[in-house]
Design brief:
The protein is mainly alpha-helical and 225 residues long. The chain has nine helices and no strands. Helix 2 packs parallel to helix 5, helix 3 packs antiparallel against helix 4 (44-71) and helix 6 (115-139) runs antiparallel to helix 8 (153-186). The two termini are 27 Å apart. Mean pLDDT is 89; it is low at 1-11.
Length: 225
């Protein structure tokens, strides 16, 4: 198979490009924190600038995904299958896509978050971003796992990381329920369309943690095989 500049950067193993993709995905998700700081302060030009950064990072993650799919060698001698690696890549990609969706909808509607919602939403968002960070840390251990043949103390370390991702995701579920109750109490005081989009953004933000957990689940499947 002809070599490409993309794979020449990392050698023939697809693990490091997969890790590079996950890092780009997390950077995309991480930008939601300053984005919402601007949104909650109604600094719309700043929010628009950060939203463009999120779009750029998601596009860069897409480029990495496309290159890896196109140039992933078929004759790899790895303790993981090609299809499992591609599935993991797909799940990572969904995380970046959702971050872009959130920023696009909030900016497109210049959404205003009631004060009673804003504080709880900020805490909720930070926990969802933490889930993304934990999944990035876990994926970054793949090359070490490969070197140890998916055995020994390294596999126990990654299993601990996967368990932490699940714990954070469960915490975001609890916070999401509380946020919905807050919005429910405000329903009669807000225009119905505003309520609908508040629920939508809360749902999509919770999906960030869900996607991070799915990354951990896919990684656990790799360990099991």
């Amino acid at each position: 198979m002809p070599t490409t500049p993309f794979l020449n950067m990392f050698g023939r193993s697809p693990i490091r490009p997969l890790e590079a993709h996950m890092l780009k995905v997390h950077l995309c998700v991480k930008e939601l924190e300053p984005f919402f700081e601007a949104v909650l302060s109604q600094k719309w030009p700043e929010a628009a600038r950060i939203q463009q950064d999120i779009v750029r990072l998601e596009n860069e993650a897409d480029d990495l995904k496309r290159d890896l799919r196109l140039h992933l060698p078929k004759g790899l001698f790895l303790p993981v299958s090609r299809s499992d690696l591609l599935e993991l890549l797909t799940v990572q990609d969904r995380l970046a896509n959702r971050a872009k969706d959130i920023a696009g909808l909030v900016l497109g509607r210049n959404m205003i978050f009631p004060d009673v919602v804003a504080s709880s939403f900020t805490d909720f968002l930070q926990r969802c971003i933490e889930a993304s960070r934990q999944s990035n840390v876990a994926i970054n251990e793949l090359d070490e796992l490969l070197e140890t043949g998916f055995s020994g103390s390294e596999i126990k370390l990654v299993e601990t990381m996967i368990a932490e991702i699940s714990r954070v995701e469960r915490d975001t579920d609890d916070r999401q329920i509380k946020l919905r109750h807050i919005v429910f109490d405000l329903e009669t005081a807000l225009p119905p369309v505003n309520v609908m989009f508040l629920y939508k953004i809360i749902e999509w933000t919770g999906e960030l943690a869900d996607r991070a957990r799915e990354i951990g689940d896919r990684l656990q499947i790799l360990l099991a095989k």
